Amino acid sequence: MTTDTQSPELTDGFHLVIDALKLNGIDTIFGLPGIPITDLTRKAQAAGIRVISFRHEQNAGNAAAIAGFMTQKPGICLTVSAPGFLNGLTALSNATTNCFPMILISGSSEREIVDLQQGDYEEMDQLAIAKPLCKAAFRVLHAEDIGVGIARAIRAAVSGRPGGVYLDLPAKLFAQTMDAAAGKASLIQVVDPAPRQIPAPDAVQRALNLLKGAKRPLIVLGKGAAYAQADADIRALVEKTGIPYLPMSMAKGLLPDTHPQSAAAARSYVLPEADVVMLIGARLNWLLSHGKGKTWGGKSHKDWGGQKFIQIDISPQEADSNVRIDAPVVGDIGSCVAAMLGGISTMGSGWPKPSPDWLGAIDERKDRNIAKMAETLAKNPVPMNFHSALNVMRDIIKTNPDAILVNEGANALDFTRSIVDMYKPRKRLDVGTWGVMGIGMGFAVAAAVVSGQPVIAVEGDSAFGFSGMEVETICRYNLPVCVVVFNNNGVYRGTDVNPTGGPDVAPTVFVKGARYDKLMEAFGGVGVHVTTPAELRKAVEAAVRSRKPTLINAVIDETAGTESGRITSLNPTSGKKK
Ligand code: ADP
Ligand code: TZD
């Protein structure tokens, strides 16, 4: 029985944040503890949330972002104020750029002191700094607003075009108390956080008409298509229309790369030759040469190649961002692709399959390029090069199609992307739209935590260095992650020399013969040093089988590799002086 003298049951900011997250199905937080969020991490763990604690916030942020990509739920990254927040910001910004849903929750210092710039511990106006770098930014000052703050952050992250959201929680908020029942009532379980967006029927019809009239149609699948988890319908659309398709890097495996309609091995032929291109969750940004120029058959790098474009995208502003989009279809990919399929099935006369001339010409190029590549892959040079090493990785993924491949570097990235076939959706996670180094270990940790599947991270030695300390995290949580460092002694390669003859090595050169495998051993994981494809195969197979944290230092010919990998054209000095 309650009496007037009995104090009401209270809750506080800590518990309201945790309860709000749990209420919305958030079961994992990636972060790094410290003032003022240490207790939040402890209490979250005590409340049954999995808290994965990192060695640097950028890696926690990258983990959250890729968890968001894999699950369609916002990945949560939790950081301390100012420096921790800033460390997380690169990942938040990268998530926004890549359309990955994540929420960076950061503790912050006292508003009154920050606003008067009186020099608080880790003082910084974080909300103002985060705003231009994310999709939305919110601050909660009162415990009773926590429910609304978290609901708004979740909706902003996953609805429409997904992206990064910042949620600022000043230190004082956590200790604020309120009546427990009122607190519970203030929380919001978000209903339909990423509502379907149905495309307009006339937009679908316009797109179908254009596609139907095409002589040399092409479909480009982007990571938006992978994110959408409309795998069966996307495959049905590709197969029903019979149109050849190109997967962008993270869309590899949406259909198996070995699919007969994949035109990946004839990319440089199909882009300039296609007359109608349907983009599904792919932007015409630099990765597709902005839809114009020589890649697309234009005469100079600014010229339009003459293609007509259909673009399926959730963002109504995406169309025309680089070249004219003749048939924009705005909506979520699941709904758009279903509508296209619906339209096709109602066509009385059936769908006209692309001409045998077009398909035959593509097959011819494919066969030629695949045969050429097979020849290169079969070589066994000493020292091992990217190709002979990747021949092994290719077999390993083929026999372990559920394994997740994380990939970063320059040559290590480009060669892996083109050589290693993927067989299932969302199994290839890489540097994305920015080509950012440093995603490796954060992505690997999250991929293992979220999926429980073995993770193989193919890393350039430079790329690995950006997040390498997280091998401790991998060991601490005993994650089934096998890191393969392609060690060619430097950025791009290891042979540059200091032209002055001075004692400093060239800016791209690292310590020669470094033993990255020892790093993993330092924390109790398995370290292996390999110099041949046979040794590499044995080591990766053992790692996948044992699920033990493993780092393989794979020695690659230090002369192998080109500057900037395949994007040499963007490097101002490329083609001039080597
Ligand atoms: P890629 O780098 O693979 O070419 P991008 O990141 O450039 O892919 O493009 C992804 C596109 O997918 C973005 O324009 C984004 O708006 C869109 N997108 C993301 N999720 C969805 C979805 N569920 N439905 C429709 N479009 C989506
Ligand atoms: N910093 C960040 C955050 N992102 C970047 N992309 C770069 C720097 C520049 N950069 C690249 O674009 S690739 C690369 C750097 C430093 C590393 C390439 O060397 P690697 O790979 O050893 O990782 P390869 O296989 O030796 O080419």
Q: Would you write up a description of this structure?
A:
It is a single chain. By secondary structure, this protein is α/β, with parallel strands linked by helices. The protein folds into 3 domains: 177 residues, 3-Layer(aba) Sandwich (Rossmann fold); 161 residues, TPP-binding domain (Rossmann fold); 189 residues, Thiamin diphosphate (ThDP)-binding fold, Pyr/PP domains (Rossmann fold, 3-Layer(aba) Sandwich). It is 39% helix and 16% strand. The protein has 22 helices and 19 strands. A 6-stranded parallel β-sheet has the order 3-2-4-5-7-6, sandwiched between helices. It has a 6-stranded parallel β-sheet with strand order 15-14-16-17-19-18, sandwiched between helices. α1 runs parallel beside α7 and α3 runs parallel beside α4. The structure holds adenosine-5'-diphosphate (ADP) and ligand TZD. Ligand TZD binds next to α17 and α19.
The tally of helices reads: 22
List the bound ligands.
Answer: adenosine-5'-diphosphate, ligand TZD
Give the proportion of residues in helices. Answer: 25-40%
Q: Which percent range describes the beta-strand content?
A: 15-25%
Which key phrases capture this entry?
Rossmann fold; binds ligand TZD; 578 residues; binds adenosine-5'-diphosphate; 39% helix; 3 domains; six-stranded parallel β-sheet; 19 strands; alpha/beta
